[in-house]
Amino acid sequence: QVLRKSLQRGVALSTGSFLVYEGHKLISVFADVHASFKVEDIIEQADYLYGSGETEKLYQLLIQHKNSDDTELLWRLARASRDLAQLSSTSAEKKRQLAYEALEYAKKALEKNEANFAAHKWYGICLSDVGDFEGIKTKIGNAIVIKEHFQRAVELNPKDATTIHLIGIWCYSFAEMPWYQRKIAATLFATPPTSTFQEALHYFHMAEEADPNFYSKNLLFLGKTYLKLNNKKMALLWLSKAKEYPAHTEEDKQV
User: Principal place where this protein is found (predicted)?
Assistant: First the structure.
C-alpha cells in the first residue's frame, strides 16, 4: 500500500512536471512567434515611413529598439540616424552625435550578421561620415576599409544599385582628390588608394543598369563625371535627368 501510494504520487508529480514543461514550451513558442511578428511589424512600419520621407518619425520609431539584437532593425536604425543627421534643420552638435550613434548601430548590425549586405553598406557609409568629424587623415585612413565593405555588400547582393553607386562615389572622390590630400594618402599607405573618372563612370552606369532612375544623386554624378571627362553632350543629358527627377526627399531637392 505504501509502495502503491508512492508510485501514484510519483506518477502525479511526473505528470505535473510534464504539463509544466510542456506549458513552458508552449509559452516560449508563442513568445517567439509574437516577437517575430513584432519585429516584422516594426520593419514594415519603418519601410513605409522611409518610403514616405518621414525621417524624424522613422527615427523615433526605431530608436525605441536600439537595444535589439535584430540586424534588420539595427541597420535601419543606423540609416535613420544618419538621415536625421543629414537634415538641414539638425544642429551641428546633433549631426555629430547622430553620426557616431549611427556607426555604433551599423557596427552592431554587422556583428549580429556578417552575411547581411545592408549592414556592410551602412557600416561603410557611417564610417565615412565619422571621418568628416575626425579630419582628412582619418577619412583617407578609413577609405580602404569603407570600399571593402561596399564591395562585400555587392557580393552579397549584386542587384543593390545604391551600393554600386557608392563605389562610384568612392572612385570619383579619389579621382578628384587634390594634391595635398594625395600627399597625406602617400604617408598612410605604401600604395595609396587611387581611382579615375572612367572607373567612377563605370560604376554609376552599372548602378543605373541595376535599377534605372533609382536615385537622383546617381543621375547628378553621371553628369558631373561626364563633365570631368569633357563630354558636355552626355553631361547635359544626365544633368537634365537629375533636374527633372521628382523631389521626394531633401537630398533630391539639393540635387
Answer: cytoplasm
Say if CB 168 and CB 203 are below 8 A apart: yes
Letter for the amino acid at 31?
Answer: A
Final residue of a structural domain among 90, 117, 145: 145
Give how many domains the chain has, as a whole number.
2
- Cβ pair 21, 52 in contact under 8 A: no
Question: Which three cell numbers mark 147?
Answer: 570600399
CA distance 77 to 14: 48
Contact status, residue 186 vs residue 192, Cβ threshold 8 Å: yes
Does residue 14 lie within any of the structural domains? no
Q: What is the pLDDT of residues 114-163, one digit of tens each?
A: 999 999 999 999 999 999 999 888 888 899 999 999 999 999 999 999 99
Distances (CA, A) of 98 to 63, 77, 82, 95, 178: 11, 11, 6, 5, 29
d(CA 15, CA 19) in angstroms, rounded, equals 6
Task: For the beta carbon of residue 172, count every other beta carbon within 10 angstroms.
Answer: 22
Tens-place pLDDT, residues 187-230: 888 888 899 999 999 999 999 999 999 999 999 999 999 999 99
User: Which residues span the domain enclosing 104?
Assistant: 39-145
